[in-house]
Amino acid sequence: MSTGAQIKKIHVLKSDLHLADKDYRSLLAAYRRLSDGPVGSSKELSIQQASAVIKTLEHLIDATPEVRSRVYAGDRQISMLFALWRLITVARESEGIRKTLQSFLERHFHVRDIDHLPKGKVPKIVSALKAIVRQQERAGSDV
Q1: Between vectors from CA 76 to CA 74 and to CA 80, what angle results, nearest 5°?
Q2: In this structure, are residues 15 and 61 in contact, taking their beta carbons and an 8 Å threshold?
């Protein structure tokens, strides 16, 4: 069965898309329960099916620019995060910087893909990164 985190993510994405309940139920009905019959609730999805539903909903958001700009962080916000992260990380190549920032976001903010970073999480992430930068500056001045 789907995990609690998957169910929550599905419902957040459904809400972000302003998906009508009828359309949401149609999407779920495309999946079959192990005991046969269509799925009627996100709780009845398998872990793999829930992952597929999440990817489908994320794809719908990505394909709709006005929804994407309302839901996910914009390029300027992402650039700011990378600029702050460059002050923190020891990684120097862009791939290493992206990988380490992604790992930080996953561990501390439960964001599994920076390209799908919820806009509402950006202020908390910026505050956390600025706090780390200040801490590193203080530690550097104590030496």
Answers
A1: 120
A2: no
* Total count of residues recorded for the chain: 143
Quick check: 56 and 27 in contact, CB under 8 A? yes
If we measure between CA atoms, which residue out of 8, 2, 107, 102 comes closest to residue 52? 2
Domain definitions of the chain by residue range: 4-71, 75-141
d(CA 26, CA 5): 22
Positions in the chain whose pLDDT score sits under 70: 34-35, 141-143
Tens digit of each residue's pLDDT (9 = 90 or more) over 20-60: 999 999 999 888 776 677 888 899 898 999 999 999 999 99
Report how far residue 89's alpha carbon sits from residue 99's, in angstroms, rounded to the nearest whole number: 11
**Is 28 in contact with 41 (CB distance < 8 Å)?**
yes
| Per-residue DSSP letter, 18 | T
- How far apart, in whole angstroms, are the C-alpha atoms of residue 84 and residue 126? 8
